[in-house]
Specification:
- The structure is a single chain.
- The chain is mainly α.
- The chain has one domain.
- Helices cover about 85% and strands about 0% of the residues.
- The protein is built from three helices and no strands.
- Helix 1 runs antiparallel to helix 3.
- The radius of gyration is 17 Å and the shape is rod-shaped.
Length: about 60
Amino acid sequence: MEEYLKLKQLVEEISEDIYKAQGGNKAAGTRVRKAMQDIKNAAQEVRKRILVLRVDEGPSGSG
């Protein structure tokens, strides 16, 4: 799923900045906060895609 791969990539891209921010690098902290907003939006896209997949499958045979 393309949306999930994008989310995963965003998380991987900020790993170095996370450690820099923990060390007190304010610019890295700013980059992490911005990236986290992007991650939040990407996660929402994954949620939407999963819902579409679930709806497209139809009833799961209960009844």
